[in-house]
Structure formats: C-alpha cells, structure tokens
Amino acid sequence: MAEISRRRAEIFLLVEEKAENFFVLNMFVRIIRMRARKRLSNRNVGPKYRMIDRIPKQVEHLNDLIALNDVDCLDNLRMTRDAFARLCYLLKHIGGLLDSRYVSLSEKVALFLFVLAHHKKNRVVRFDFKRSGQTVSRHFHDVLNAVLRLHTLLLVTPQPVEDNCTNPIWKWFKGCLGALDGTYIKVMVT
Questions:
Q1: Does 161 lie in the same domain as 147?
Q2: 65 plus 150 within the same structural domain
Q3: Which residue among 69, 80, 155, 157 is buried most deeply as judged by most CB within 10 Å?
Q4: Over the stretch 43-78, which tens digit does the pLDDT of each residue have?
Q5: What is the dihedral of CA 115, 116, 118, 123, to 10 degrees?
C-alpha cells in the first residue's frame, strides 16, 4: 500500500513537472508571437513623431519674430519688442495667462498677434509655428480670453469734446460724441 501511494506521488510529481514545462513553453510561444505581431505592425507605420526634432525650429521662428530687432517685430506682430514684452507682462500678471507644457507665454502671444495682424488662417499659422492646428486654436483662445479679462484696463470710454475746447484738431467735433460711437450724427444741410 505504501508502495502504491509512493508510486502515485511520483506520477503526480512527473505530471506536475510536465505541466509546468508546458506552461513555460506556452508563455515563450506567446511572447514570440506578440513580438512578431508588433514587428509586423510597426512596418506599416511611418516615422514616429518626436518633439525634440521640432523644438529648434519653433525657437528659431519665435526668435525671427521677436528677438532680432524692432523692425522685424513691428512688421510681423505690429508692435515693438518693448510693447510686446509689456503686453506679455499684463497678460501673465493680470490676465492670468501661463506657460503651458510645450508652448511659452511669449509664443502664445506672438501666435495670437500674428493671426490678428495678418489675418492668417489656422493652417498657415500651424505651418509657420510648427504646431498642430489644435494647439494653435487652443492657445489662440487662451490668449483671447486673457485679453478679454483685461478689457477694463485696455478699453477706454470716450469723453465728449467740450464746448470750450481750443485744440484746433478737436474743436470742430463739439457735441459729436454720438458720431464717434456710431449712434448719433448731428448734420446740418446747407
């Protein structure tokens, strides 16, 4: 009886050992198949996108717009470098605009001004700034919202020209505040 139970234990150990070997072999086969599938699927994909390849072009373009001289900055963004720096300061500290992970605040503002100054489409700006269309749109709207938060600081309410005005340029516009905002034009037909 002891010999039968010992024999059964040996058979059980052999079966268990074979099962473990089968399990390990099965896992190796699965790993080899997964790697082969992955290799085949990677053949059809084009070159992988790498952010590190685009960064030098983006920095160079931003430097071309802003950092070279006032004439180029004025031509591209319709403001001097000093005015651009002041606008960036206002948008950061009062408007609440911040750098994002891959786009600096100055690049966001330059992108915004470039669109407004030249009436460029999203596709053109996307190509010029080496960004995706979604990135251009998102950061344009971020800057627009920050500029709208500055409306109390940037927009000035017009003051009417007083009756006793002696300035030769403005004395002809006495009582014509309505003409300035488009709601009232005082006309005398002769």
A1: no
A2: yes
A3: 80
A4: 655 555 566 667 777 777 777 777 777 887 787 788
A5: 20
Residue 2 covered by a domain: no
Residues 20 and 95 in one domain: no
Residue 161, domain extent? 157-190
1-40 pLDDT, tens per residue?
A: 667 677 777 776 666 776 666 666 677 777 777 877 777 6
118 pLDDT more than 70: yes
Q: Choose among 122, 124, 141, 144: nearest CA to 133.
A: 122
Are 116 and 77 contained in the same domain?
yes
